[in-house]
From TrEMBL:
Residues holding Mg(2+): 54-56, 266, 268-269
GO molecular function annotation: metal ion binding
Free-text cofactor note: Binds 2 magnesium ions per subunit.
PANTHER family with a match to the protein in the record: ADP-RIBOSYLGLYCOHYDROLASE, ADP-RIBOSYLGLYCOHYDROLASE-RELATED
Protein's UniProt name: ADP-ribosylglycohydrolase
Keywords: Magnesium, Metal-binding
Gene3D superfamilies named in the record: ADP-ribosylation/Crystallin J1
InterPro entries assigned: ADP-ribosylglycohydrolase, Ribosyl_crysJ1, Ribosyl_crysJ1_sf
Superkingdom in the source lineage: Bacteria
Cofactor list: Mg(2+)
UniProt organism field: Micromonospora deserti
Length: 306
């Protein structure tokens, strides 16, 4: 089925996803504060606010601002926006800080991105962590979501796994959003099959998403054992796990985020990715959506995101 999404609808859908991303990021980051225990969240106790957001949110805001401005990704402009808005204290990895510094000082992004990791390019989870709202924006075309996700990834992640991670998350968000518009909850295995179909079959991310489908209904420790939890901060170690969580808890944002916190690892990023996909489907302030109380506890988003 094809349909038309008007510009303001696209943006509203992307903003719901961004709300889910940023709340997941900010709440997830709270569990790196000494003394915070996942068990407290499991019984409904929230950390004291405000919850500052991290690099995941800062970069996702640049993606959403770019889509609001031009309706598509202009790679040169996006690379510069990432570089100019980067506040290193927000938890950027050293590799990301280096690439963004090169871009800020005039190195073309293809050169800067290719220079990472001795010329292999980054396969980090950074392109996946910021892309969910883009998938929501292109909910009417998974092909367009995948192509635009690739464009948004390439400016910092030249490695095929880094790009595949972004494509997987964007397509997951696009499919989740489309199901919201059509008024149904996709079966977890169908959602993961749709994601796998869009991702380069030569990648570990693709194999991971297929593995995730085989683990639906299994326990969290089993899923973490087989898929990772982002502790290696690579796309391969992060994206399939987040797809498993999102597919499992697509209509229950709090449960999805609690699952990421319980899994440990790169919690701000896994919760950002999962939060973006689940909020794209479940919404904000709705039953199963991002709780208003959580949204109010998150540090306000930067003014420039509008
Ligand atoms: Mg972060």
């Amino acid at each position: 089925m094809s349909f038309t999404l008007f510009a303001d609808t696209r943006l509203a859908l992307a903003r719901d996803s961004l709300a889910g991303l940023s709340v997941g990021d900010a709440l997830g980051a709270q569990f790196f504060v000494p003394g915070r225990r996942p068990a407290e969240l499991a019984v409904g106790s929230l950390p004291p606010s405000p919850w500052p957001w991290t690099d995941d949110t800062e970069m996702a805001c640049s993606v959403v601002a770019a889509l609001a401005e031009g309706g598509r990704i202009d790679r040169d402009a996006l690379a510069l926006a990432f570089a100019e808005r980067c506040e290193p204290y927000r938890g950027y990895g050293p590799g990301a800080v280096r690439i963004l510094r090169l871009i800020r000082t005039g190195t073309p992004w293809p050169v800067a991105a290719a220079s990472a990791f001795d010329g292999q390019g980054s396969c980090g989870n950074g392109a996946a962590m910021r892309v969910g709202p883009l998938g929501a924006f292109f909910a009417d075309s998974t092909g367009r979501a995948a192509a635009q996700a690739r464009a948004s990834a390439e400016v910092t992640h030249a490695h095929p796994e880094g790009i595949a991670g972004a494509v997987a998350v964007a397509v997951a968000a696009a499919l989740a959003t489309r199901a919201r518009l059509d008024g149904y909850r996709p079966a977890p295995d169908r959602l993961l099959a749709g994601v796998a179909a869009a991702v380069d079959p030569a990648t570990e991310v693709h194999r991971g998403v297929r593995r995730a489908a085989g683990l639906l209904g299994r326990s969290l420790p089993e899923a973490v054992d087989a898929l990772g939890n982002g502790s290696r901060v690579t796309a391969q170690d992060t994206v399939a796990f987040t797809c498993w969580v999102a597919a499992t808890h697509l209509d229950d944002y709090p449960a999805a985020i609690r699952t990421c916190v319980q899994a440990g690892g790169d919690v701000d990023t896994t919760a950002a990715i999962v939060g973006a996909v689940v909020a794209a489907h479940a919404g904000v302030g709705t039953p199963g959506g991002v709780p208003t109380e959580w949204l109010d506890a998150r540090e306000p988003l930067p003014d420039w995101v509008g």
